[in-house]
Amino acid sequence: MQKKGKFDYILLETTGLADPGAVASMFWVDAELGSDIYLDGIVSVVDAKYGFKHLAEERADGTINEATRQVALADLIILNKTDLALEEDLDRLRKTIRSINGLGRILETQRSRVDLRAVLDLHAFDALSGISLQNKMLRVATAQPHLDQSIVTVTFEVPGNAQEESLNVFVQNLLWEKTVRSKAGQCMEVIRLKGLVSIRDKPHQVVLQGVHELYDLEETPVSWASDSARTNRLVFIGRSLDKEVLQQLFVTTVLET
Among 41, 142, 166, 254, which residue's Cβ finds the most Cβ atoms within 10 Å? Predict the structure, then answer.
């Protein structure tokens, strides 16, 4: 986080068992109420030697374990102590992290030595994120889970204009009502949502952000090059996600006909 209009930064470190989404949501809501605290991004640290073990842990109640949730929500994932892990184990861990979170950047370190320029000014929760998000999202592919837990990244692109009211209903059904189900009948649980959307009558690209049950639409300073270039790129991170169902629902309920 940082203070708006100043160069003061606050690095808020939570406990190893904390849900960063709950903390981020608190400051995100507070920012909407006029606070001078700005949420810059979520950074998660993964132990290279024991990270796979923590990500593979299954909870008795069937809920997502803390390590997986922290990776899923992160904008930057610091893979630390890489010198203590075998290369084959590191490669397995990299693939597991990427299957959970296909959008976050992975930074590999030893002894937690990190250039602060790589950690600060992430702009993960503001309109500036839209400037870098477009090309980044083109490189994100829907991944298959490397663990029994079905936490995956799902992405799709659909050209055309979205109806803002219908888009709100689509997101609210996912995050609030939780009425969207996969073909197997499982309720889709979205942990993180990001997207660039084209909304009718808005000349600029719009960033869609969601964390847990909170979401926001913010217009960026980037204009669409032409009407033919208008498109919608969405990335979902969560459990029991069904790309085909999500994309078809978006097309039939959100896109302008």
Answer: 254
